[in-house]
């Protein structure tokens, strides 16, 4: 019930402006495990990310043997360039971006790189049980992860508990997390944790992955770090190891798989080409493109986010006509901002088909706002009726690695109203169009009806909205709490609107301007019981009010001056 805390730029909110801020407020009912947060605006997430760990409440236990210690392991990618320039060069040329120059473990590369001088080291006690919380925060690379001399027992993925899977290799697509127990029962010493790319492109002649190896050290307390033992890594193209890991995961059998199915979809993932856009000044005729069911997704123009268009009743920003099945073979790729509308609490089943057309690669498909059950997956074309679904103990995930030339079947309950991005987590594929959005309606009860958004949320990206959000951030929270009210129903629209689509009421949309506002120390502090804290002095609060008033006056004068100009 908090879609404004989701984060994707121009899907659930307008982008946070330079020197601006926005406070994400949300709850995590029914979730435990390893998640993560990251920027969701272009390549900025290459460095703007971190672990987000939800532990059991006091008095509750893990459904596996309790660890003696926990170690977050965040895997990333590093470029020897400004990552914004890396993306800009690719977009202007209509090509894929340059591969990273290094991988990192908790921000450090290890010593196998010519420029490296730092290594992350986890010091552990002998004969202990260590929980590694591993996150693939990389932009472009599927990853293999191993620890020399040790095996793993996988106990969770994507903040969903699993039945114990024993393996010596963890496989993580971008966006995925794995919780794995490691018993420190080896001979006392130091052991490399190693990270290498898993190349999923086929044929391999198309592959251009980062071929380097990042390392960290698992060091038994009281021993030396030199020289650590190195694990034998899989070959970069070892699909058998990857598929054995992915296909071998099972859940705990609860909660039950939802049924019956209300909405059945088949979504085909496609790579291709489109004519160069005029803005792609270095593009030579055609640009790399991607699509779901033949539609290459485009974010709306800069005037409004999709959720903002819905909440404010704007038309012409998107259309609710995303197809439920692929178009006939040979149909030209279309471009649009198309969403699929879902009734509240409907059970949705999706067959994700990754065609075997050359080139093909493994696509990590991520669904915002929901977990889903993975009922089946395999290689080759999906044939309805010939596949046995696991309805007993399927694994629950939020990101599924759909194998190149293969398929996966997922199912979820649309019980979270809002606009939810469904996209490939290989970052270059998002601007190419490999995504779509589910628009989930509110229900009919107060607990299933989307409440009004917070005052500091910006859904329409104009100066007026940014100013109102800035004012809300510095104003005292004296207004009464509103009862939940339904968001306005979206008016049908026939096509995506132009860049300056009219707002409700007919006022023109003004391009976003930077608004300098920072979190105010005078805002009421959040408490467990939901009531505001009394931690505030009259003097600072008055100063905050005056500062906010002056900011608003100056901003209005600036807007009037710009209007006259």
TrEMBL record:
Biological process GO terms, please?
lignin catabolic process
- Is the Metal-binding keyword given for this protein? yes
Write out the GO MF terms.
copper ion binding; hydroquinone:oxygen oxidoreductase activity
The protein's location, in the record's own words, is: Secreted, Extracellular space, Apoplast
Q: Where is the composition biased (Basic and acidic residues)?
A: 514-530
Segment Disordered: which positions? 485-539
Q: Which InterPro entries match?
A: Cu-oxidase-like_N, Cu-oxidase_2nd, Cu-oxidase_C, Cu-oxidase_fam, Cu_oxidase_CS, Cu_oxidase_Cu_BS, Cupredoxin, CuRO_2_LCC
- EC number(s) per entry: 1.10.3.2
User: Keyword Repeat, does the record have it?
Assistant: yes
Q: Which cofactor does it need?
A: Cu cation
> Which segments show compositional bias classed as Low complexity?
490-508
Catalytic activity field: 4 hydroquinone + O2 = 4 benzosemiquinone + 2 H2O
Name all Plastocyanin-like domain ranges. Answer: 2-58, 70-222, 316-442
- Cross-referenced Pfam families, in alphabetical order? Cu-oxidase (PF00394), Cu-oxidase_2 (PF07731), Cu-oxidase_3 (PF07732)
Q: Which GO terms describe its cellular component?
A: apoplast
Chain's role: Lignin degradation and detoxification of lignin-derived products.
What is the similarity comment for this entry?
A: Belongs to the multicopper oxidase family.
Q: What is this protein called?
A: laccase
């Amino acid at each position: 019930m908090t879609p404004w805390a989701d984060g994707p730029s121009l899907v659930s909110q307008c982008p946070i402006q330079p020197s601006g801020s926005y406070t994400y407020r949300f709850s995590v009912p029914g979730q435990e495990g390893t998640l993560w947060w990251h920027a969701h605006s272009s390549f900025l997430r290459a460095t703007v990310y971190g672990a987000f760990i939800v532990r059991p409440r006091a008095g509750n236990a893990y459904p596996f043997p309790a660890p003696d210690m926990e170690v977050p392991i965040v895997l990333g990618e590093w470029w020897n360039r400004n990552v914004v320039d890396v993306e800009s060069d690719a977009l202007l040329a209509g090509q894929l971006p340059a591969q990273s120059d290094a991988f990192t473990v908790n921000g450090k590369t290890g010593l196998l790189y010519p420029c490296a001088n730092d290594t992350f080291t986890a010091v552990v006690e002998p004969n202990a049980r260590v929980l590694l919380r591993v996150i693939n925060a990389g932009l472009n690379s599927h990853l293999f992860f191993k620890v020399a001399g040790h095996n793993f027992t996988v106990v969770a993925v994507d903040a969903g508990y699993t039945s114990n899977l024993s393996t010596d290799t963890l496989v993580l697509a971008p966006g995925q997390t794995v919780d794995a127990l490691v018993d420190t029962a080896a001979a006392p010493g130091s052991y490399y944790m190693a990270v290498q790319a898993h190349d999923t492109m086929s044929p391999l002649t198309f592959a251009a992955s980062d071929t380097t190896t990042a390392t960290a050290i698992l060091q038994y307390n009281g021993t030396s770090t030199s020289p650590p033992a190195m694990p034998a890594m899989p070959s970069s193209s070892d699909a058998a190891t990857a598929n054995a890991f992915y296909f071998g995961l099972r859940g705990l059998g609860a909660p039950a798989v939802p049924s019956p199915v209300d909405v059945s979809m088949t979504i085909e993932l496609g790579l291709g080409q489109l004519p160069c856009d005029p803005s792609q000044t270095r593009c030579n005729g055609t640009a790399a493109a991607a699509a779901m069911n033949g539609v290459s997704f485009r974010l709306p123009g800069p005037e409004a986010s999709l959720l903002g268009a819905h909440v404010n009743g704007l038309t012409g920003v998107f259309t609710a006509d995303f197809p439920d099945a692929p178009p006939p073979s040979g149909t030209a790729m279309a471009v649009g901002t198309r969403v699929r509308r879902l009734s509240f609490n409907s059970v949705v089943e999706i067959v994700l088909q990754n065609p075997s057309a050359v080139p093909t690669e493994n696509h990590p498909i991520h669904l915002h706002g929901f977990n889903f059950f993975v009922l089946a997956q395999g290689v080759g074309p999906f044939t309805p009726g010939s596949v046995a679904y696991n309805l007993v103990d399927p694994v629950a995930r939020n990101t599924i690695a759909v194998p190149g030339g293969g398929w996966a079947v997922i199912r979820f309950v649309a019980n979270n109203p809002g606009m939810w991005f469904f996209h490939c987590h290989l970052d270059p594929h998002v601007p190419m169009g490999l995504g779509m959005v589910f628009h989930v309606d509110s229900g009919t009860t107060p607990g299933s009806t989307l409440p009004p958004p917070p005052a500091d949320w910006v859904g329409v990206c104009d100066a007026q909205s940014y100013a109102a959000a800035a004012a809300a951030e510095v104003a005292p929270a004296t207004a009464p709490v509103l009862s939940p009210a339904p968001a306005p129903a979206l008016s049908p629209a026939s096509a995506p609107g132009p860049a300056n689509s009219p707002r409700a009421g007919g006022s023109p949309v003004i391009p976003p301007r930077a608004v300098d506002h920072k979190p105010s120390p005078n805002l009421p502090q959040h408490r467990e019981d939901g009531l505001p804290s009394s931690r505030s002095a009259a003097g600072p609060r008055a100063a905050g009010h005056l500062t906010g008033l002056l900011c608003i006056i100056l901003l209005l004068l600036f807007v009037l001056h710009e209007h006259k100009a």
